[in-house]
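input
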Amino acid sequence: VQLQASGGGLIQAGDSLRLSCAASGRTFSSNVMGWFRQAPGKEREFVAGIQGTGTSTRYAQSVRGRFTISRDNAKNAVYLQMDSLKPEDTAVYYCAASRYTTNVRTTIQDYDYWGQGTLVTVSS
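output
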């Protein structure tokens, strides 16, 4: 099983970026998927999560209204649209898949499969 995150880069504050995560090795269409991030010197934190059907989502307070998580189960993929980016959004972003199929989870321990991370750097 592999989760491949991509789409990171260096951008200016206020710009937008879209991260993608492609899963392979098994289907995650029923599983909760999530995005986490880890800034330098800080712990990994929850950013956004989405239920298998895509009808239920949750966001960290710090990104609500600016980030949008979505998924395409036909492609076994999950996305994170990030708008109005701020320097404090700078971090390595990880996609993850949970063993749970209901209720979007926000804790690291509830996710079993992790991608390798993609670096997002927002300059002021």
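quick obs: The chain has no helices and eleven strands.
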